[in-house]
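In this supplementary section we document a worked example of the pipeline. Step one takes a protein sequence of length 203 as its only input; no multiple sequence alignment statistics are reported here. Step two produces a three-dimensional model, which step three serialises into structure tokens for compact storage. The input and output of this example are shown verbatim.
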Amino acid sequence: MTKVLVLHSVSLVRSALAALLRSEGPFEVTSAGWPSAARRAESLCPDVTVVDLDCPGTTAVLADQGRGADRQVLASPSPVLVLASTGAPGSLHRAFRAEARGYVDKDGSPGRLVRAVRRVAAGERFIDASLASAFMEADPVPLSPRELSVLARAAEGDSIAEIARTLHLASGTVRNYMAAATRKTGARNLIDAIRISRREGWV
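The serialised model returned by step three reads:
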């Protein structure tokens, strides 16, 4: 039995995805919103975690899952499978940096998701052919994984103190990462850096 964790901010969507997977294979599926993501991942120890790149909350989690992060938000070795759109190459690049193992086109058939879950659970990589060109179009992200993590949480409205507590950093270190992200994006200030990064699909 393959254990799958489906994370999404919209209850109806995650329930539908979970129902689809249960009906199509020997999957033990659990769905959760972002507030309980870490707790569910720790208790379930899923074989695959499915997330939607367009879902609010994904940005911060993927940034924290990326290389160089001191602590993974999901606290789980589970490989990540992302649901993506062809029109968001920046988001795909972000998921790649976070070492996602599977990439499924949201405009594809439900069978593609089922196939992808099976492949990723077996330790293989899965990339929908329709997303290949989007990968090629993705420009390199100038920000480090930690800078992305801090910027992503700032974009979600977290204060410096909240970011510092969540990422186990000093407040001064958080400010330094914010300054670096602002400089590297060529922004006028932090708000402008968030705007540019959202436009490019980085956060």
